[in-house]
Amino acid sequence: MLLNVIVAVLAILAGCAPADGSRDPLRRRWRKESEDFWQEHSPAPSNAPGELRYRLPNYIVPTHYRLYLETEVHTGNRTYTGRVDIYLDVQRQTSTIYVHNRGLHITYNQLRSVSDNDIGDLLEESMRIAEDPEREFSIFSVRRAIAPDQYVLRVWFEGQLRTDDNGFYLSSYLGENGTRKYLATTQFQAISARAAFPCLDEPAMKATISLQIKHHPSYQSISNMPIYAVAGDLDGYVVTMFETTPRMSIYLLAFVVSDFPFIEDAGAAQRVFARPTSVNETQYALETGVRLMTTLDEYLGIPYSTFMPKVDQVAIPDFEAGAMENWGLCIYREELLLNEPGVTSYRQQTSITTVVAHEYAHQWFGNVVTNAWWSYLWLNEGFASLYEYMAADMAYPERQYRDLFNVQVVQRVLNTDSSETTRPMTFSRGATYDTIVSLFDNIAYSKGGSVLQMFRQLLTDDVWRTAVRSYLQDNQFGAVTTDEFVAALEGATQDLDLLPEGVDMRAFVGSWVDQAGYPVVEVRRTYRGDIVLSQDRFYNNKILNDDPTLWMIPYTILEEGTPLSEPLEWNWLTTRAAQVPTTASDDRWIIANVNQTGFFRVNYDTLNWYMLTEALIDDPTSIPVHSRSQLVDDAFHLARSNRLDIEITLDLLTYVRQERDYPPWEATSRVFTYFYNRMRGTPNYVLYQLFVDTLIGDVFLTLDVASVDPNEPLLHKYLKQVITSWACRMEIDSCLTDTREALQREVAGEGNVHPDVASIVYCYGLRTGTDSTPAFQYLYNKLLASDNVGERSTLIDALGCAIEPEQLDAYLLSAIGGELQVNYDDEERYYVLTAVLVSRAGVDALIRFLTENYPYVDSILGRSTLYSLVQSIAIRTNTPEEEQMLNELLQEMQAILPESLVASVQSTVASNLGWLSTREGLLVNNYLQRFRPIPV
């Protein structure tokens, strides 16, 4: 029945023949929206006292693994077999050996002595094994207790290639002739090496590894190390043997068995692998990898070749982790590595560049030096998050990647880190899979990178490099905690008068990494030559002045009239409050935390805010660009938490009519989005449109919506996309006309839209015109024909911009069609369903679709997808009529929706509908009613 409906509907979509679909890439925004929703409704985290129960005993230490695997993945067969010799340093008498095992069947085992670093006499065989699935242990019982010495535990086992993109798993793609081709690959971080072979799966349990893989000769295998031999077997298969790795954490082991070809730079010892139809899209990844490795070698002063002889990159069709830094073998989801000239957009290329930089930075931060336990994950991910921008900027200085860091990293995590449920950077929830994976969040990545950026700027780059090099050199092949990081900072600063009296480096660093949240610094001028500074924790929904948390805060102050090129002096706030002198005259503004170098917000007295606003309106460039961005971001969030009058924020925002730089506009766009989501559908929405139109109007006139200059700077492309997306959303006629005509020209075969403006042109070009059917069918056909994951992402989004009910209904139904009708993978099906959420027409269509088809969504995409879609609808419900539609959907789905979800959804809707009567809503509406554009 369902397939008949889909076949009928596909006539609207032009019913193209199937092609291979690829995992949607750069758009985790709807899943992120769902995560943020639940973060606001979840209890505060706490360290787990039962963690040790899941940890390995520390008196048995692995020193080497000799791993042998046999696979028939070329046939799609998921069964594989293997044997692993685990060399153990037993440091006290014991009668039990604990080894991690998730889902593997152990068929035989032996315990042997070690003689001359090799396998010696047989001591035990067929030892009794107690399986503990909850803790994922295989516990071997030795009949007679063994004394401290060196041993080898030899284990034969069978396993199944997983299908969840985790452990040793099965992947596939469609070849040129439409046949399904299979490959096997790995993703072991954080604790999934144990799902591939028995091992001691903790990051501090470092060992060397030698690997052999037996596979069909039509395939090849690659791993962390180069191949030293390939031998034929009697059954016609071959065994690929790899050189022994350096001492490393077991989660960094990786291998791929596939028919992928590669390109290489032999001189740089780098290769890039991809499926045969995509290997021609790997040149940029290779060139970028070589350039980034050279940059990091020079910057860090410890060449990569000190540790490893080569590095490979591999593009995998389905790789849930996104990208993984396995030492010498970095694995990526296709869209994060493949670059097709003329198709890949500047945003996608930026993602490729920074993701490769992130994974290459890990070759030192994470691989050479590894977090001792997952509670210190920020020591891996924070460094990589910082250098994904810094290294990319050093490699491509003309692109100014470093100028993206504050708006894309710092400001976003300042928002999420202001909730009551946030956690400290150093933190553990336990030692199970779910509790460890939950730590791979924006606190470990973005906050970690932001706090390290603060440390770097405080120390100056030269001193920071000295500290970083010492950190790497002193701890190479080791596992670290905060103590080793602090020791490196102490060594680099021992001759500097850096810290305030009574504060040591451990206290300074600990105040940022061991405490949840961050401070807001209140700057109150007496206008008698002094400033009163105070700090307390910033919450996004309340003021709590008695919070006991205290930070050691380094800060800078810029006074009006000071040359922007002049170095600024660092000062310290280490107490709850302090009074400090200022030389600024009463009629001149001051700015604290210049260019948002510190990880905190700043609030000022009303007069200083107004002086800053007047200065910005008179001449935005009188204030540094990142301070301008910071002022917008801080003012908005301070107003939202009732620390600042919302009218001061809105007055300050009006300066952007004169703004021509991207960072302040990115911060402004987030403010626009917040108010758009609350005012859409309300009586004063037209006043909001006038407000936004006024602020973007002047800069919009300087931009060409539908074309790209070959010499256009990267940050200007970001600026253009922000401005034009708002111009079209606010229905400025020229924006809609330009996008419609550009799309029509492509549909007519008169020239393709440039990929750097395609997302705007396709989306808004589809919304206007008397008959959008040809354009809709053209874009849908282009989606089905495309094999480029980045382009597919753009097209999925664009089709969701349709507003004709018939088109939307057909498009949504295509998401649950079978493989014979459409060529989406499961993740793309999910993104089809969320792509329509960009308009109210799309939300209404999704409600209609779920009302009729939620059982199919449940069976195809899962219950969590349904929950996420319902949450997304609730977030976009602003009127009583919309609420009624949502309630009818909830009633239809009541059998499968948990009460907690329904309650949260209803609370969200009540908050949306009640916003107009809140203090914030009333003040914003009053401001918009009084707003009159002032000629510039």
UniProtKB/TrEMBL annotation:
Swiss-Prot/TrEMBL cofactor(s): Zn(2+)
Residues annotated as domain ERAP1-like C-terminal: 589-893
Xref: Pfam families: ERAP1_C, Peptidase_M1, Peptidase_M1_N
EC number(s) on file: 3.4.11.-
Residues that hold Zn(2+) according to the record: 358, 362, 381
Aminopeptidase N-like N-terminal domain sequence ranges: 61-252
Cofactor remark from the record: Binds 1 zinc ion per subunit.
UniProt entry keywords in alphabetical sequence: Aminopeptidase, Cell membrane, Disulfide bond, Glycoprotein, GPI-anchor, Hydrolase, Lipoprotein, Membrane, Metal-binding, Metalloprotease, Protease, Signal, Signal-anchor, Transmembrane, Transmembrane helix, Zinc
Name under which the protein is recorded: Aminopeptidase
Taxonomic source organism: Anopheles atroparvus (European mosquito)
Organism lineage: Eukaryota, Metazoa, Ecdysozoa, Arthropoda, Hexapoda
